[in-house]
Amino acid sequence: MAEVVLFHHARGLTDGVRRFADSLRSAGHVVHTPDLFDGTLPASLDAGLALIRELGDDLDARADRAVDALPGELVYAGFSVGEAAAQRLAQTRPGARGALLYESCIPVTGEWAFGPWPAGVPVQVHGAEGDEFFAEDLPAAQGLVEAAGPDLAELFLYPAEGHLFTDSSLPTYDAAAAEMVLERSVEFLARLG
């Protein structure tokens, strides 16, 4: 069993994010789903990005508070904007057991980097081939896989279109691709014991 903190995307803690978390729970894992937007569900991706800009640095502070009372030995997971919180915490909070990064990736070197990938921490990155946002992040994902090494890192690309293809409550949902993401995530968590 793994203990996971799963951060939502720019549309908030939607029913689709909750269902994904429930699927991980059904596989025997403990999954925390902090609501960084305090119940707000932006009506569009643009509205969500506007809320994120309004929150500014407080968004990171909210993510930090969400894990303060949790053990250090967590798997950090996140969708899109939530991926940044998950990756930052996996790279900077001691004790990370792994990371599941969905539909986004931050470089591990350069101006936006949180620092090097921590030694011994396994990671999976999942993205859609037809996602214009993930297309911009693909070099970062490839760099992360190279930095972490083939024994610890995996990058999966899915034949899906659009951003947030894993969220069953949104129109961009791709059931077949999302099921593959879930299966691979469950396998990843099972390997962690």
What fraction, in percent, of the residue positions are helical? 40-55%
Uncertain parts: none
Number of domains: 1
At the first level of CATH, what is the class? Alpha Beta
Q: What would you give as the CATH superfamily? A: Alpha/Beta hydrolase fold, catalytic domain
Here the CATH topology equals: Rossmann fold
Q: Name the strands of the widest sheet in spatial order.
A: 2-1-3-4-5-6
Query: With helices defined by DSSP (H or I, 4 residues minimum), what is the helix count?
Result: 6
CATH architecture: 3-Layer(aba) Sandwich
Kindly report how far apart the N and C termini lie: 5 Å
Large-scale geometry = globular
* Residue-averaged pLDDT: 96
The count of β-strands is 6
Q: Calculate Rg over CA atoms.
A: 15 Å
Pfam families: DLH
Protein name: Dienelactone hydrolase
Keywords: Hydrolase
GO molecular function: hydrolase activity
Word description of this protein:
With 193 residues, the chain is α/β, with parallel strands linked by helices. The chain has a single domain (3-192), classed as Rossmann fold (3-Layer(aba) Sandwich), CATH 3.40.50.1820. The protein has helices at residues 15-26, 45-55, 58-68, 81-92, 132-148, 175-192; strands at residues 3-7, 30-32, 75-79, 98-102, 123-130, 153-161. It has a six-stranded parallel β-sheet with strand order 2-1-3-4-5-6, sandwiched between helices. Strand 5, helix 5 (132-148) and strand 6 form a beta-alpha-beta unit. The radius of gyration is 15 Å and the shape is globular. The model has no long low-confidence stretch (mean pLDDT 96). Keywords: Hydrolase. It comes from Nocardioides kongjuensis. InterPro entries: AB_hydrolase_fold, Dienelactn_hydro, Dienelactone_hydrolase-like. Residues 4-191 form the Dienelactone hydrolase domain.
